[in-house]
Amino acid sequence: MKNRFFSLCFLTAVLFISQAQAQQTASEYFDIGVNKSKAGDFVGASQAYSTAIAMNPDNPSSYFNRGLAKQQLKDHRGAILDFDKTIDLDPKNSLAYLYRGKSKSEQEDHRAALQDYNRTIELSPEDAAAYLARGTTRAKLLDYRRAIQDFSKVIEVNTEDVNKFQAYYSRGACKSRLEDYPGSIADFTKAIDMNPKRSQTFASRGFSRLRINDFTGSIKDFDEAIKLNPEDSESLYNRGFSKTKIDDFRGAINDFDKAIALDPQNVRAYYGRGFCNSKLNNQKDAINDLTKAIEINNVNIDSKVVYTGRITKNILDELRNVVQEKGKINEFSDDRSEAYYSRSVAKFRNGDAKGAINDLNKSIELNPTYAEAYFYRGFVRSSTGAQKEALQDCSNAIKLNPKYGEAFYVRGIIKHALGDDNGGCYDLSRAGELGYSAAYNVIREYCN
């Protein structure tokens, strides 16, 4: 009996020691993750935290820190999952809500991000970073008045100059959007006093001064912006525009020349230079410049399609052809639009793009709400080089089916190929959100 009691005690002690060792090992891996994060090795940090989680799956700090590492790796979806788990284990962790909101913002899910920032502020009413993040998100949602309230709160409670500077700048930008230019100028001036080395603040104040016809003041601000950032094409254009207002046409042309040299697609600079050339009686040059101002990236004229983005025509064709027609049979309706649609697919696969478009035209005529027919017509048109018409078809498909991932994908790569990088990447992001995973390959290659 005594031996059995001793054996039981021994096994219990061994189990206790093993658990303690495992816990200690998890703690060690957690510390490794912290050190790797400090060193900028976020891949290694994420792996270390994953090992710590495998050994101790109930430690919210491991999930939280892994989420932070994933954020640094731009893996915002993975980060959100980790912050979800952090909150499950520690529902009052205000920072988990804050950083989850930031990842949601990076995914353009601003309304969901707003809810997380609200929760952060409920748990931590004096968290200046939360007010700053919420104000930024409200501004993105065009809720400028409430954004201003948040930025004012940052200024009130914050003791860190970097956040206070950002709050003054962002509040000024919101006031400018509301056409409160004197108010925006006051805020930009505060921001400049705190950080006189940021070109964008001078550029923003210069724009507000331009809007109240303080052309001398705006030129001085653009001078400073350009000194700090000589490759700021936008400030060069705005300084040139300000100079035209005081009839300094030659000085304006000099600025427009520099703006165009930095950004050959700056249509407003061509417009400004054309205007000045006309004033100086250089009519031939004026006509050339104004023609470019009309034609460059103008989807509203029947000019030749120009592939101006990093996605060239050949790359566009390659990326588009990744898409596979879904091939799911639809109910056969009395108008027989489905039959025209299916025949169009067969014709296109057989090399008859013109015949496919004719069938798709008929399918849409019979059923104007047929989202798949619009999308496929856009797909076929894109293959023939009719990119503007293809964009319209994809947009119509999206209007009819806002969750049409393939339509967002194709519209995104076409926009990017035609020079609309931001619009294209936004569409690709939306395609990925809707489950069309091929979009992420394009995002990694062309949107960063």
UniProtKB/TrEMBL annotation:
Keyword field contains Nucleotidyltransferase: no
Signal peptide: 1-22
Highest taxon, organism lineage: Bacteria
SUPFAM superfamilies given in the database record: TPR-like
GO biological process assignments: receptor-mediated virion attachment to host cell
One cellular-component annotation, GO: cell outer membrane
Gene3D superfamilies the record matches: Tetratricopeptide repeat domain (1.25.40.10)
Statement: the UniProt record of this protein carries the keyword Translocase: no
Keywords annotated in UniProt: Repeat, Signal, TPR repeat
TPR repeat intervals: 26-59, 60-93, 94-127, 128-161, 165-198, 199-232, 233-266, 337-370, 371-404
PANTHER family associated with the record: TETRATRICOPEPTIDE REPEAT PROTEIN 6, UDP-N-ACETYLGLUCOSAMINE--PEPTIDE N-ACETYLGLUCOSAMINYLTRANSFERASE SPINDLY-RELATED
This protein's name: Tetratricopeptide repeat protein
Organism: Emticicia agri
